Amino acid sequence: MVRIAVVGAGISGLASAWFLRSEYPNPDTEIHLFETSNRIGGVIDTLEPPLNTNHENTDLLVECGADNFATLLPDALNLVREMGLESEFITPQKDFRIAQVVRKGKLIPIPNGFSLMQPTRMGAILATPILSPLGKLRVLRESIIPPKTKDEDESVEAFAVRRLGRECFERLVEPIVGGIFTAKADQLSMQAAMPQFLRMEKEHGSLIRAAFAKKNTTNRETRSAREASGARYDQFIAPKRGMRWWLSELAAPFQNPATPNLQLHLNHPIKSLQRNDDGTWQVNQSTFDKVCLALPSYATAKLLETVSPALAAELASIEYASSAIAVLAVRKDEIRPEALCFGSIAPSIEKRNCLAISLSSEKYAGRCPKDTVLMRVFMGGSLRPDLLERSDEQLIEIARKEVRELFGPHSEPSYKHVVRWNRAMPQYAVGHLQKVQRIRALESQLQGLAITGNAYDGVGIPQCIRGAKQAALRLASKLPSTR
């Protein structure tokens, strides 16, 4: 009998356990999935159905964290297909498929073809009121700015300013990046967060030239970039019944009485981890042959303090940001027609109290009644940690003010709720890839141990699933299999 412990039942832990179970379906292999809290999912959860202000059930489907995932990186989609659930996922709606950015208190659509930080349509750049004439000229000059010749890491701010100019960075790149990573762009690593743009600079000498080089190609990624308004909405999908439902399907084999060798243990914190002289692992009071740690890096560090102080120190040095989401259900007839979109972002120079506002019901069908718009107002992050000191009631009022000023609704929301995520978003600081290389080197010295999660090779769901599969394969490479 081979016994494996997977610690942490967020998306990384669930996926690791799934891959261990599906790749090595040996009844003589026990897989135990441990979770400290009373639910699976980690920073992903769905409230269904929540209560409205009159404490009655609503027709809302409220996502507390990620509400979809990208498919250009295929790992998450491949897992959905392996589970046989692709028909249960939907694509974003066609109407209002744009993102807007705040300029002088007004919402303005992000130029078509501006994807994260790559301009692909020069006409749209010239036409946008987001940038001044000088700012537009500076963007167009990007094609003649010489590429960097050295390979050392740099911040997203340094890269964007060098290539596109300060104004484009402040008005477009910084709010887009801040909305994704809740990070300070002057500290966020280009190599870790956006390596695709470094490749464009290296291969083509320019982001604009890279876009023109692919202009006549018809592959999905190129087409997606040219049609983007900040985000490539055509590459995202979401489960009809919410993210919690999908993760529950991932966890189902570990809650099935017919498979007693697969066990999910909720409300089961792991307080100690030691390596035994025979190479096995002591997890609390139980012995396991293999251990997968799918926790925030600071929690993994605490478990490994005595096992490998050097590895624990590297893990503990990864910083995290906290955030809050205020969810509001507002009347659709009170929203200004020109404001309807998938979401808005706010540059730091606008000095607003929100990072972004997502219109969940406009992105995906079935999230609320047709006369209602479901909004999620994102606050905090590394840019505004002070907001996390406010009470839930204060955050609701801040969110209502932001929504009223930018979108128009003035009536009392029919539903309001605050979700807090403390130390939930790892910050990929400059030099992050080198740190991860050191972590992997130290990890490899501990046989039978694998570390995974969103703190290492990408914060997105596809990246977490890719990392989970790699961790599972490292652990299972020497396990017996019935295949």
What does this structure look like?
The chain contains 17 helices and 23 strands. By secondary structure, the protein is α/β, with parallel strands linked by helices. The chain has three domains: 2-40 and 245-318 and 429-476, FAD/NAD(P)-binding domain (3-Layer(bba) Sandwich), CATH 3.50.50.60; 68-95 and 320-426, Alpha-Beta Complex (Polyamine Oxidase, Chain A, domain 2), CATH 3.90.660; 113-227, protoporphyrinogen ix oxidase, domain 3, CATH 1.10.3110. A seven-stranded mixed β-sheet has the order 8-7-19-20-21-18-22, with helices on both faces. The chain has a five-stranded parallel β-sheet with strand order 13-2-1-17-23, covered by helices on one side. A three-stranded antiparallel β-sheet has the order 5-12-6. Helix 1 (11-23) links the parallel strand 1 (2-7) and strand 2. Helix 5 packs antiparallel against helix 6 (166-181) and helix 13 (309-316) runs antiparallel to helix 16. 49% of the residues are buried. The model has no long low-confidence stretch (mean pLDDT 93).
Pick out its properties.
alpha/beta, protoporphyrinogen ix oxidase, domain 3, 23 strands, FAD/NAD(P)-binding domain, 483 residues, 20% strand, 3 domains, 33% helix, Polyamine Oxidase, Chain A, domain 2
SSE topology sketch:
Elements: E1 2-7, H1 11-23, E2 29-34, E3 46-47, E4 62-63, E5 69-70, H2 75-82, E6 89-90, E7 99-103, E8 106-109, E9 114-115, E10 118-119, H3 122-127, H4 133-140, H5 156-164, H6 166-181, H7 190-193, H8 195-204, H9 207-213, H10 220-227, E11 229-230, E12 236-239, H11 243-251, E13 262-265, E14 273-275, E15 281-283, E16 286-288, E17 290-293, H12 297-303, H13 309-316, E18 320-331, E19 343-345, E20 356-359, H14 360-363, E21 372-380, H15 392-407, E22 415-426, H16 432-443, E23 449-451, H17 461-476
Parallel strand pairs: 1-2, 1-17, 2-13, 7-19, 9-11, 17-23
Antiparallel strand pairs: 3-4, 5-12, 6-12, 7-8, 9-10, 14-15, 15-16, 18-21, 18-22, 19-20, 20-21
Helix pairs in contact: 1-17, 2-17, 5-6, 8-9, 12-13, 13-16
